[in-house]
Design goal:
mainly alpha; Serine Threonine Protein Phosphatase 5, Tetratricopeptide repeat; two-stranded parallel ribbon; 26 helices; 2 strands; about 55% helix
Length: about 525
């Protein structure tokens, strides 16, 4: 007999016992205390107890004189004993909208960043998707920063800004950051706990989250999550009982109910027809497909599902493809991708295997410290990574490990460009090429010569003295100005250097001096690195 069948029988038995007990109680009246003490079972025919509405007994009046009626607001006397309606408001500590994982100072933002921006506009700004890695990092800092939130127009919208920030991190694939943000603010309700539960299914650690749900069942976001966690804890009869009741009441979506039925009764899962993936796919359904022996590929699923393929249970190729997706989006460190590239020997050629082989060859060449081996390995690895859209990850992997002055020709220039792209400005020797000297000046705080179209547009911005810091009392809306600057800066990757320069200048005026330099450097380097693969 399956656990589901046993659960049905348990549910029926519990209902039958409840009905029997109810019928027995209805056949007899309530017993008075005296009858119970004497062992009698007959109901009392009368009672001498005083009841509300009866005249107050004389002895009670002498012992406790009648008090005058208490008048409420407006001099009105209460007409009944009904409870007075109580207003409920959330305490300030429970408002998570201003929570963050980094301080405003670490983010380089003023405390009044969201002043002058209404809630709906702020949420729309959070969804911006800057193209330049330097711009994307600024936008990420805004989401993660602990800042006073925009003005909340109604009490019912408290917490909406916090959830919008978490949801944007999830949509970007930045699950580790979203989980830290959620854990710091405290998942105090089913809405926030749902997100933490979903992320644990993709990142791992669902056992801890399920333990919390089993201790406090009221925080469960839905019956399906409750059923899964009961089963994870080994309470299969309890999971089956909840499943039977929830399915009969229509509380579980049909596709997910089918998956749960196969999960709870594994005797029917073997050889069963695979359940068609449901769109949109939920993390719980994804894990249930895996649990019943019908795992789904993540390549066609939203980016956040790629984290599940980093698990050791996945094959090396699946791990590499998932890691590349996440690194391409800027949410997986380049060092983590490099470790995966070096985990095994490539089993074939083409695609991800060629990139893994090129990275391994460059690692091996760096160990020898032989420039004649490093130079060709660097050029080949960069060409393969650039073609796959992994420039930023590649620069993070190797920029600080390859000294440009130890190489010559195009390899030396490429090593310098990668170092400047990743934000590193320390070099042992000045580069011989005038264009490279101008790029180094732009990145390191000097005044660049206008030796390229991008430098010609950007150089005048840094010719003037530093602008004064923004006045905290200034009524300008800083958030729209910053996001507008990021959008303008991205235009530089499409060749519109005039608009890009306007965005960089705005960043500088907003006080983001170092960010303005790095964004400008990436704008100037972008066409050069694109041409380096030719």
């Amino acid at each position: 007999m399956s656990w589901i069948d046993r659960g049905s029988r348990l549910a029926g038995l519990a209902a039958g016992l409840a009905l029997i007990a109810f019928g027995a109680a209805a056949q007899q009246g309530p017993l008075s205390a005296n009858d119970w003490l004497k062992g009698k079972s007959g109901p009392p025919t009368s009672s001498s107890a005083w009841r509300p509405g009866d005249p107050v007994p004389p002895d009670a009046s002498r012992l406790r004189p009648t008090r005058p009626p208490v008048r409420g607001q407006g001099g009105q006397v209460a007409s009944s004993a009904a409870a007075v309606p109580i207003g409920v408001s959330r305490l300030g500590a429970a408002n998570s909208d201003g929570a963050g994982v980094i301080s405003a100072r670490q983010a380089g933002l003023p405390d009044n960043f969201w002043d002058g921006t209404d809630l709906d506009t702020a949420i729309r700004l959070l969804r911006a998707d800057p193209g330049l890695p330097a711009s994307s990092q600024i936008a990420r800092r805004v989401i993660e920063a602990q800042l006073p939130p925009p003005a909340i127009p109604a009490e019912g919208r408290i917490g909406e800004f916090f959830l919008a920030r978490v949801d944007q991190l999830i949509a970007d694939g930045a699950l580790p950051s979203a989980r830290v943000l959620l854990q710091g603010a405290g998942p105090d309700n089913a809405t926030t706990f749902r997100r933490l539960f979903d992320m644990s299914l993709l990142l791992g650690g669902e056992g801890e989250v399920c333990n919390r749900m089993n201790i406090a069942p009221g925080i469960a976001p839905d019956p399906a999550a409750r059923i899964f966690c009961l089963a994870q804890a080994g309470d299969w009869p309890g999971a089956a009982t909840v499943f039977v009741g929830a399915r009969k009441l229509g509380l579980i979506e049909p596709n997910q109910a089918e998956l749960l039925a196969l999960y709870l009764d594994d005797s029917t899962a073997d050889g069963s027809t695979p359940v068609l993936p449901h769109d949109p796919m939920s993390p719980l359904s994804f894990r249930l497909h895996e649990a019943i022996g019908h795992p789904l590929p993540t390549t066609t699923l939203p980016l956040q599902f790629a984290w599940a393929d980093l698990d050791e249970r996945s094959g090396w190729k699946a791990q590499l493809e998932a890691a590349e997706r996440l690194a391409r989006a800027g949410v997986l460190p380049g060092g983590s991708l490099r470790q995966l590239y070096s985990a095994q020997s490539p089993a074939a050629s083409g695609g991800v295997w060629e990139r893994a082989a090129a990275v391994q060859a460059l690692d091996a060449a760096l160990v020898t410290e032989d420039p004649d081996r490093i130079a060709p390995a660097l050029v080949l690895a960069f060409q393969r990574m650039e073609t796959a859209g992994l420039r930023d990850a590649f620069a993070t992997m190797f920029a600080d490990r390859i000294a440009p002055e130890t190489l010559s020709g195009n390899a030396a220039r490429l090593a310098l460009w990668l170092r400047l792209w990743s934000g590193q400005t320390e070099v042992a020797l000045a580069p011989p090429e005038p264009l490279d000297k101008a790029l180094l000046a732009l990145a390191s705080g000097g005044q660049p010569e206008p030796l390229s179209p991008a430098l010609g547009a950007l150089a005048p911005i840094f010719a003037a003295d530093l602008p004064p810091a923004p006045d905290p009392d200034d009524r300008i809306a800083l958030a729209p100005a910053l996001y507008g600057a990021l959008a303008d800066a991205d235009a530089g990757t499409q060749g519109d250097v005039t608009r890009a320069a306007r965005g960089v200048q705005t960043l500088r005026h907003l006080g983001l001096i170092a960010d303005a330099r790095r964004v400008a450097t990436q704008i100037a380097l972008d066409p050069l690195l694109k041409g380096a693969i030719q």
